[in-house]
Please model this.
Amino acid sequence: MANRVPIEGLRDDVRVLGHVLGTVLNEQMGPDIFATVETARRLCIRLRQRYDEDDERALGEHIGALDVDSLVELTRAFTVYFHLINIAEEHHRIRVLRARETERHPAPRHESVEAAVRELKQRNVSSDEIRGFLDRLDFWPVFTAHPTEARRRTVLQHFRHIAAEVKLLSEEPDSPQTRERVADRLAEHVTVLWQTEELRMERPNPLQEVRNGLYYFAQSVYDVLPRICRDLQRGLDRYYPGVPLPARPFLRFGSWMGGDRDGNAAVTADVTEATLQLHRETILDLYIRDVAELVDTMSPSRPRVGNVVELEQSLENDATMYPDLVADARRRSPHEPYRQKLSVIHARLQATRASQVPAGEQFRYAGPEGFIEDLDALRRALLTHRGERVAGGTLQDLIWRVRAFGFHLASLDLRQESDVHEELVGELFGRIGMRHDYRALSESERVSELLQALLRPNSNALAAIAESSSAPGNTAAVFTRLPAWQRFFGGDACESYIISLTHSVSDVLEVVLLAKEAGLVRIDGDRVESDIDIVPLFESIEELDAAGRMIDEMLGIPLYRALVKARRDEQEVMLGYSDSNKDGGYLASTWSLYGAEREIPRAAARHGVAVRLFHGRGGAIGRGGGPTERAIMSQPDAARNGRLKLTEQGEVIFSRYSNPKIAHRYLEQVLYSMLRGGFGEPTEKVEARWGDLMGQLSQRALEVYRSLVFDERGLVSFFLEATPILEVARLNIGSRPSSRGAIEDIRRIRSIPWVFSWTQSRMNLPGWYGLGSALGHHIDGSDSGIADLREMYRTWPFFASTIDNAQISLVTADMRIAERYAELSGAHKGTVFERIRAEYDRTVATVLQVTSQQLLLEGSLVARLVQLRNPYVDPMHYAQISLLQRLRNGHDPDGTTRSAVLQTINGIAAGLQTTG
Model:
């Protein structure tokens, strides 16, 4: 590496990293294995350039002749290659963003928060309209532990070290010595990465998942949040002077890690409490660090600025309550009142951090309100003596952070299945002497019994049940301990309770009753108080279609309506993208979700209630993935209300939040879309024109999808044999099981391994199956069929987004590779796979007709990157197929073959940049 290292552009970065990797592979594997890797690479490139049966046979023989250890080494080589390519692409994206920002200056960056404010000004949106929208603006990303991140945190940290070195190549273009040092360090990091076990040897426990999530808060989210606030402040100052930032935080964060017990018995009440404590310790440590830095830098003195009356009074008040603290601060900084005040704040934060119980150190902060009050006092004091720049700098950043993060960092959502609540309420009623078997009652009888129980005094039965170690006992313990958690960690720390598999109103009222028995809901005549938001989660096609009616029914119950009034007249409703897709397929799920997004806010509005829709989206198209900004703009009018909550899952968290610059870009693009969408063109007319046709397309796609997935007798065997589902289930990438029951039951398999397995085999079935038949049926059955669909694509953002997201799934699918997997299924290849391939061909053809393209995603960067990556992913597919074939034939005496398959799963996920 003594020669000049090229540093300009993505291609040069790839060349540098490729050279480093080649050197390391030769050193680590030796020339024989390296030659084996090169042979596979060249054959795969040649096959992609021009398919030839002899070349494919040669590749199969080459791979088939390798022993398991050699296949692992081959897979590791291509896996590390993709890790490096992914880092290079991330760095290039940042470089492009920087170049575009420079080109546009002084105009706002494209699709930034400031750009959105400027566009609204250009469209003559008034100051009052902006102010009203900002008052309800609420973007709430929620990090989840859904197991779609196949890489260990240790490996992710190595990626960040490598990324830092790649960044240095660009920053020191004219320093040969620096380039040589960087190249040497890159080789060092790649060597360590090569020698590091990528896969977790054991399944992580919930608290390990919590700590993994906290890594992103500390490394990225904490730094980015004030930048977003500053972006909006700058846009308002420039285009709407006099309109302030919202008084409350418009960007907050949540988490499910340590609170989501749906199907995960490992998430106990003790785990949830430990999670809340970790959240608190993490944010307080960050505050303590920031305040210590302010103590070092905030040195205005009385001789220079005079007496600052308000600040001096604040210190006198502190001296009354904490004389020793103030005396020590004055002794160390005798003429510097800002340092004195900050030293007191620092000591109080340390005492707060050390306190594990409410009756802790006497000078700890009881909550973030006191901390904010002290910081605001500092800010106001600075403004009295020409300290505006200081007040609006680092100190303001800290104030924004405290308002958003409090002492809880992220609001921890609690989640449990409705069946568990049903069982728990049944046991509760049994203990208080109910004469009937609650679980045997009809829905109307259940609602009646629950409403009556809500008006009776509390019993001690819930606390008694909480002593049990069963699932209902664990859930009971959560309810009984939640009031104490809220008192100590703060009400915002844990305020939402999500009901999985919500089927009926009784599912919601059961949780209301449990909350009442725990003291979280208090009913005294007409006076109703509540400390939690109760959130139904609609997941199946039928539930989504009925969601509006159910919300209407819920809010029509006076007692429940009073409960919502006690919670700001706001009802949160969660929509399940993944399970609805598995239930009804891509198109039916997408249309049912759209209908729910339209009908739920309409139903709530009839009762004078605002709605926050919580979107349970995953990373893959089959789990609601795709560009978030486009999804926002394609929502129905009623859903673009300035309130957005969504899950950030698995590898999506890594791709969006591991790098602060990428995190900032993602968050600003979402807020850009929310601001523009809130004042976007109404879609009611175009929806009214095309809604009936969309319903027909959805119904046709639903029938075609279910006829394969649930009615085709060979589908289960095909799925188990032609995909690595059994091996995916053994990946130690999450603490939650892969299914709610037997893995052979499609309905019980969780959506993540379902999508993950189809992705690995390159069929991508959840992201498109049924769409082609639906489109083709309309094209063939109507004289205006193709004209209708083309006009829908041009004029309806929802339909355009639906088609374009399907294109992503179609272009990353590969039927030639998929056929090799299908051959593992033996007898079912001729039935199931032929149906899949025929529908794939039909879908590609009809999508091209609708979009008037010659190729999928014609001219897009996504399509180009897939083409570039395919030859390097292919060797891992062939390795995986060979290993699966050996497993299916029983050749795995010591477990090494299965372990090798897990390595290929990890590698293919890195190459495709997606899991589930």
In short: Residues 114 and 234 are 7 Å apart (CA to CA). The chain has a mean pLDDT of 89. Residues 68-104 form the longest helix (37 residues).
